[in-house]
């Protein structure tokens, strides 16, 4: 007679709480200078990936379950004097054999993929149009100020480079700063007018004796010819 005792008790549990939170950020604000700020529509696109995994280490798919000896054949006598069991195991703790038992251990995995999206737009369109118009005006004003500063710089460069060239001062042609005044031309240095005219003296050519005109008439040849 044998009995199997299973002293192994497995208890496991896991709780996973996952949540996706969508936070709506403020409107996108564009600043154009001069205290002008415009807010436009905002679109929030939030992808997310969630996952979880649970496993037991080391992984044991089977375990050896011991089978104990519960024999009770001796220890007492019946009325006829025969040996019988006394209700106590004869060989307590003895293992007769072990049997292979599955643990049922498994790995658990989960994966979640998705996205959330919100789109926020201002309600008052007139304010948006006015802000855009003010922004365009501010950009034009800033562009004009930059053009004025550029003009002042070019005129100052022209004046200084011209005065230095009149004095014979300039950068060496191999200098990296030679190109600063390379496009400045001085047209009227001291003692020179531009445009100016030079007088060319005339040269007298001696007159030659005019040649006699040719004629095809015989009487124009003079006296008659004599032949010998």
Strand and helix layout:
Blueprint: E1 3-4, E2 28-31, E3 37-40, E4 42-54, E5 62-68, E6 75-77, E7 83-85, E8 95-102, E9 108-120, H1 125-166
Tags for this model:
228 residues; alpha+beta; three-stranded antiparallel beta sheet; two-stranded antiparallel ribbon; 1 helix
How would you describe what is shown here?
By secondary structure, the chain is an alpha+beta fold. It has a domain of 51 residues. 18% of the residues lie in helices and 25% in strands. It is built from one helix and nine strands. The chain has a three-stranded antiparallel beta sheet, with no helix packed on it. A two-stranded antiparallel ribbon has the order 2-3. The protein has a two-stranded antiparallel ribbon with strand order 4-9. The chain is elongated, with a radius of gyration of 59 Å.
Strand composition percent? 25-35%
Distance between the termini: 189 Å
Number of helices: 1
Largest sheet: 3 strands, antiparallel
Name the structural class. Answer: alpha+beta
Using the CA coordinates, give the radius of gyration. 59 Å
Shape: elongated
> Taking all residues together, what is the mean pLDDT?
79
Q: Quick gist of this model?
A:
It is built from one helix and nine strands; from the N terminus they run E-E-E-E-E-E-E-E-E-H.
């Amino acid at each position: 007679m044998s009995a199997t005792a299973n002293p192994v008790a497995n208890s496991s549990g896991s709780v996973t709480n996952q949540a996706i939170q969508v936070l709506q950020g403020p409107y996108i604000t564009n600043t154009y200078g001069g205290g002008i700020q415009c807010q436009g529509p905002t679109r929030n696109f939030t992808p997310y990936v969630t996952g979880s995994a649970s496993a037991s280490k080391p992984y044991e798919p089977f375990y050896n379950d011991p089978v104990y000896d519960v024999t009770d054949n001796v220890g007492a006598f019946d009325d006829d004097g025969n040996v019988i069991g006394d209700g106590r195991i004869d060989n307590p703790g003895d293992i007769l054999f072990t049997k292979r038992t599955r643990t049922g251990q498994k790995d658990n995995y989960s994966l979640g993929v998705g996205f959330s999206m919100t789109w926020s737009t201002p309600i008052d369109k007139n304010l948006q149009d006015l802000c855009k118009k003010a922004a365009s005006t501010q950009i034009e004003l800033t562009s004009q100020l930059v053009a004025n500063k550029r003009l002042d710089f070019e005129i100052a460069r022209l004046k200084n480079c011209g005065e230095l060239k009149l004095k014979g001062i300039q950068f060496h042609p191999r200098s990296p700063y030679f190109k600063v005044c390379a496009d400045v031309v001085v047209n009227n240095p001291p003692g020179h007018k531009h445009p100016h005219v030079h007088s060319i003296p005339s040269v007298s050519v001696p007159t030659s004796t005019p040649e006699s005109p040719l004629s095809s008439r015989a009487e124009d040849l003079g006296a008659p010819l004599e032949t010998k």
